[in-house]
Batch of 3 targets.
Target 1
Amino acid sequence: MAKHSDRPEIYRTPEPYSAVGVVEKPLSLLERLGNNTALRRVLLLAVLAAIWQIYAQHLNNELLFPTFSATMQALFTGIMSGGLLAKAWTSISVLLIGYACGIALAALLTVLAITTRIGTDILETLTAMFNPLPAIALLPLALIWFGLGEGSLVFVLIHSVLWAVALNTHSGFMSVSLTMRMVGRNYGLTGFAYVRSILIPAAFPSILSGLKMGWAFAWRTLIAAELVFGVSSGSGGLGWFIYQNKNLLEIPSVFAGLFMVIFIGLIVENFIFKVIERATIRKWGMQT
């Protein structure tokens, strides 16, 4: 059998960087600006404001559709006078009471449901009955039971928050893997300790989603309720502010009130829930 010769050594001379070409091309200014999410959204809002201004000027009827500049002027005037901020705080203070009570009741129902069979039956039955019922439909009963005041508003807010939070939290608890459940049981955890140490961290994405939904439902319900009977303890909130200015035909102020409703919603979403999300589920690697 013929003997193969050894493979000869191969030597290559490194190519200079100039001959390789461009490996990493820096982004242009336009590309860097396009990758800025905040800037893209600001530009989008600016375009929408320009379209609003042009259309309103073309329509030339402030009673139907005020210009963007007139709306901003009314918003600035309302903020500087303190009246609009006072109305906003009235709404927020009532909302916080109803939101906190709704979360507390949802937590009790969910813990009961996850630890006992009868609790599961109670939660599933009540959720199926009351979750499809719009909170605003309970206003007549709220007026009869609690009168014209904060009690009625808090009642409809609790209804708005309770079922959304309870349903999402219970679904999150039920989706926790069997392995994690067995780990908790092996450590001897039962009752509230089991829920706190095992179920809540594992189900927190669903819990946070329920809290967001509960907030959105409560905020919309509160504004709608104030539009109907918004005076509470002698002063109304943002919904009542919108209703009063509609009666006075101050349409720019009506739009200013709507802007304040949107602005508060954006603040809560981006500076409260987003911060909680980054500090929990994204930090834990549960969401990208």
Target 2
Amino acid sequence: MSPGTPTDVRVRRFAVRGDLDVALAERLRTAATDGASSAIMLAGGTTPGPAFGLLAERPPRAAPGLHILYSDERQVPSTSDASNYHLSVPFLEALALPAAQVLRVRTELPLEAAAQAYEERLQGLLGEKLPVRLGLLGLGADGHTASLFSSADLTAARGRLAIPVQRPDGRAAVSVTPDWLARVEQILFIVAGGDKRAALARLAARDPTLVAWRAVERCARVEVWADAAAAPVA
């Protein structure tokens, strides 16, 4: 899992939002069933939710060594509607993985301890040389990704795999870092909604002032799947 440098950011546009959901469900199905021990990183937010639901309707037969991890997690109970883990439960139930293979951020711990515990689990994956084949990310209208919102967050992330973050909305969170993202074989941004259009244009242009681009600029492969509201179909 060595860092690389992408030459461009490919944007795949979907004229109908439902087509994006179906394509994402199939991409996750492929990643989950490829037969090799590997990991998938799930994004936060509600955008992947419909794809999780589609997978729950037709559960994939997960590869025995599959692990699931998260790009970030708000410091809320795991049963909260604001929890990224909770939003992914339909997918997790469809996969029927052993609990040890789901790297949930332990939000029942104090924030600093939760970040440290998550970093240790990520370090464990590196130690096992388990490849992270696919990593989903969201994109905020303000240009953030995961729970990395500012240059200060990126500075705090140097040399770390996971960090505690104070989000602009007042919530605390644990986020993966650019050092971790650089080890993911393919980064796939899932973007929906017209409020993301300007941020997506900046990401596609590799704007060096955009936090989301700075977070993934060392990744070997970066792709965006977007609905027509976020990236109008020509």
Target 3
Amino acid sequence: MTSLEALVALNMAGSLGSSRLNKLLEYFGRPQDIFSAPAAELIKVSGIGENLAGRIHSFKKEDLAEELQEAARLGLKIIPITGEGYPENLKNIPGSPIVLYVKGEIKQEDNLAIGVVGSRQASFYGLRAAEKFASELAAAGFTIVSGMARGIDTASHRSALKAGGRTLAVMGSGFKHIYPQENKELAEEICRSGAAISEFPLNAPPLKENFPRRNRIISGLGLGLLVAEAARNSGALITADFALEQGREVFAIPGKIDSNNSCGTNALIKQGAKLVTEVEDILEEFNLTRAFPKKEDAVPKYNLENENENRLYGLITNRGILLDELIEKANMDIPEISAILLALQLRKLVRQLPGKQFVRSA
């Protein structure tokens, strides 16, 4: 058994983490020597109870062989904590994963990374905020790290890809159980422009208890964490707690005070997270500057028919504007505004949202 094989087997046998692995290595020397020890000897190591000692001692080499063959068939690399290519940011957190299953490629440039997380049941506001920040951070050179869940995670990955940037997806299951199912195609796309990552053996299902463990990796891979939208008991707040423990910067996008989806982010701000309303707020924290224009400042590439269309379209942003506010700012007759809005909607340049609010189409 090689050192890599022993580490994969230890990962399959139980949730060790780097702390308990180091104690085992201090006692036994090499990873493969751990499997030669009787259970009674394993128990002598601090943090290794009877249950874990029994699983290590009774581990079957056949299971290891099957795991390695299946990983090769799926096109996965297995990177041990002691091996080349293991992310530097992740290596320096408490309880680092002892191995990572990786599809795609983790590059040196991914050290400049930031986690973007939030609600699975995200509001339109939360999704647009996540899209804006993920897109502009990716364009600024950050790798976007998220958990490939529904809602904010999915929006963040897609926006990073659309911006031509890199993104890493950290899974709460093994590679034979991509979760959620509807993101299988997204996972493949991520692997072509970054990587999908899991610390779990291939057959591990997406159990509820796996996701807090996944969250520490999301925060650990980045220099900071952005919480785009989170309810009071959101898993994103668990990720924020990990980020603080790991010495990472925590950023939060403020939300409406009467929105349940914003209770968590607003609470983070009260507790000291940095309130951010634009990407510059994050860049300045890392002594970086934006090397690209704001989207709102860019000249539209659409050939609008007249000056009034151009003026009205210029007032409609990606964040949306209420009809009353549009009427006030446009200095045009209401019938003319209505006609122009209808024309812009028919040409799919503008969308109308509930509450007579208009936004630019994605």
